[in-house]
Amino acid sequence: MFNFTPSILKNLASRPATRQYPFAKRELPEGVRGELYNDIHACIFCGMCSRKCPTLCISVDKKAGTWTCDPFMCVYCGICADNCPTHCLHFHTAHRPAATERQMISMQGDPKAKKKNDTD
Ligand code: SF4
Ligand code: SF4
């Protein structure tokens, strides 16, 4: 008990080592990978992000023009963004807000518009 006394006194006198997230947020370092975002208008639905993702959390449906990511499976490795040929995938610098239920990131694009633009 006497061995712990200095540590107990030190901890009583110092600030807590943890934060009350999400109410207290720390400043994020440069280049932080926050929420994954797809600029869907530039997406060509090639599916490269989905094939390269190590956790298989991205689904792409070229016909329907949908791009979906399960952020609860994402490990924020950045491989999808590094391999996206149009660079439409990138990370916001802010973290996703805390959630009480599973929410997918779902985006709807228009692959036909892409084809039309390509033939213009
Ligand atoms: S790799 Fe990029 S362009 Fe291809 S489907 Fe994924 S987000 Fe779209
Ligand atoms: S950051 Fe990594 S784990 Fe997350 S969607 Fe991209 S490739 Fe998958």
Mean pLDDT value: 89
Q: Over the alpha carbons, how many angstroms does the gyration radius reach?
A: 21 Å
Structural class: alpha+beta
Portion in beta strands: 15-25%
**What is the rounded distance between the termini?**
80 Å
Largest sheet: 3 strands, antiparallel
What would the principal axes of the Cα set say about the shape? elongated
The figure for the number of domains is 1
What small molecules does the structure contain? iron/sulfur cluster
Return the string of H and E elements: HEHEEHEEH
Number of helices, counting only DSSP H or I runs of 4 residues or more: 4
CATH top level assignment: Alpha Beta
Low-confidence stretches: none
Strands of the widest sheet, in order across it, are 2-3-5
Report on the structure:
The strands form two sheets. The chain has a three-stranded antiparallel sheet. A two-stranded antiparallel ribbon has the order 1-4. The longest helix is centred in the N-terminal third of the chain and has 9 residues, at 5-13. Strand 2 (58-61) and strand 3 form a beta hairpin. It has 120 residues and is an alpha+beta fold. It has a single domain, classed as Alpha-Beta Plaits. The chain starts with a helix and ends with a helix. It is built from four helices and five strands, in the order αβαββαββα.
